[in-house]
Specification:
194 residues, alpha/beta, Rossmann fold, globular
Amino acid sequence: MSTGVTRLASRGTLVVVVGPSGAGKDTLITRALERFSGHDDVHVVRRVITRAEDAGGENHTGVAAGEFEAMRQKGAFAVDWDAHGLSYGIPSCVHDKLAIGQLVIVNGSRSALSRFAAVFDPMLVVNVIARPEVLAQRLEARGRESREEILRRLKRSSLEVRGPFNVVTIDNSGDLTTAAEQLMGTLAPLLPQR
């Protein structure tokens, strides 16, 4: 749990991208970064995770559990949470970028949205979903879980975002370009005025 949580109104917007494993959150975020590469006022946050950096998936900072806990105690995270046996942290430096009106994108978690909302204002949630059979196929291709584990995971997870959040839902079951265009269309109005 974050220490010293204070809700900060900012000039910039925090966009929290959420959705089940296999929905394509990281891929869509990467596409958005490519599109907005000329904008030095758009940032994707590199999360701190208690997982090895070479474990595949997103570009993150990997730390041991003890180091993560020490960082947590020192207030190094704006938001942190635990899920699936791992700890995740959003570095507190995001406040600096938001304070000067920049657009900040984070890969978040539906289970932690109330923590994000307690700290960030304004905040937009982008809920990336995909049909269950598409999720199962993508997760199986990663090779991290057995088919039985994947099916159990999909059975217990919901694709909905529950709570009083400003939410845009993007279905990434089909063509990646279509979903990426939807994300970029959602982000474009949030870009700082030049």
